[in-house]
Amino acid sequence: MSAADTTTPATLPPPRQAPPPGGTRQPRGKRTSGGAGTPWLLLAPCLVILALVMGYPLVRLVTLSFQKFGQSQLWGFQPAESVGFDNFAEVLGDGEFWQVVLRTIIFAAGSVIFTMVLGMLVALLLQRVSGWVKTLINIALVASWGMPVIVATTVFKWLFDADYGILNALLSRLPGVDLIGHNWFASGPEGLAVIMLLVVWGAVPFVVITLSAGLTQVPKELEEAARLDGAGAWGVFRYVTLPILKPIIVMLTTLSVIWDMGVFPQVFVMRNGHPEAEFQLLTTYSYDRAFVVNDYAQGSAIALITVVLLLGVVAVYMRQMLKIGDVE
User: What pLDDT sits at residue 211?
Assistant: First the structure.
């Protein structure tokens, strides 16, 4: 008997079967967790809160803008009457309304430009200072950002006060400058410039913090390569830093436009609750028409027009973001 005859033959594993053409099947009785309805189930609490907080006021705003609704209707002496587009026709045909629109656009544009430019400069500065200086600046930014609007407005009222304002006293120390007793709110442009400064002061911290976070994502290799190619500081910023920060800049600009077109407490408190005609913006103008003149329908129409204008800004933002996504 040979060795080959006494050796036990090796047992080979059975050949694997090819998977069915339809793909791998899950065992019966086991289903994948989740499904198409899981995201909606998780979003349901947030959607319900948004519907309660924003849905009803928006529907009520649209309803009032198409009705005749004053004090008589508010107290129930007369029923609300549907007037179609009469409120919008009256508002759009009013020359004062268009002056307010132009003033609001100029105010918002100036606030956004100064906010973005100053925020970018401070964010770039933070990349070049020492650690403890950067910490102190960040503390100051967060402190100013966290200050309530009413408190900040009160501080600015004191700074620019005609009789006791410290700003007039400091500027009067300059050679040839005499601003003792100067009233910054005697004219609309000067007063709105002060309010614009207040808005910029409150908005810059958010822009600086966001842009500083974006600057940390700029590859140092690209900046060094641009410098080796002969680009200066402006060239590196324009052709390397700015394109990378473009999505963040577009987002910040859009949010700033929405916030600055909706400025209300700064103007309202700065003018002691009674903004003059030269200080009226769309928000205060809508408030006056609704709660001072007691024409709630026209106030709602003005507010709805403001919402439509802001939706136009959001549409531009979405278009820019889609373009950025296509390029990437």
Answer: 94
Mean pLDDT of 224-242: 86
Interatomic CA distance for residues 58 and 94, integer angstroms: 24
How many C-beta atoms surround the C-beta of residue 246 within 10 A? 15
Give tens-digit pLDDT for 118-144: 999 999 999 888 888 888 988 999 888
Contact yes or no for 299/67 (Cβ under 8 A): no
Q: For tokens 């916030």, what's the residue?
A: 259
Q: How many CA atoms lie within 13 A of 212 on its CB side?
A: 20
User: What global pTM score does this model have?
Assistant: 0.81
β-pair partners for 68: 81
Q: At what angle do helices 188-215 and 131-146 cross, to 10 degrees?
A: 130
Distance from C-alpha of 301 to C-alpha of 309, rounded to nearest angstrom: 12
Per-residue pLDDT at 20 exceeds 70: no
Residues near 133 by Cβ (< 8 Å), separated by ≥ 6? Answer: none
DSSP H helices in 66-94: 71-74, 86-92
With a CB cutoff of 8 Å and minimum separation 6, the contacts of 215 are 123, 124, 127, 241, 245
Nearest of 258, 288, 292, 311 to residue 97 by alpha carbon: 288
Burial of 10 (0-12, 13-18, 19+ CB in 10 A): exposed
pLDDT at 203 over 70: yes
**Range 27-33 contact pairs with CB under 8 angstroms and sequence separation of 24 or more:** none
Task: Check residue 16 and report its DSSP letter.
Answer: P
Neighbours of 147 (CB within 10 A): 15
How many CB atoms within 10 Å of residue 289? 21
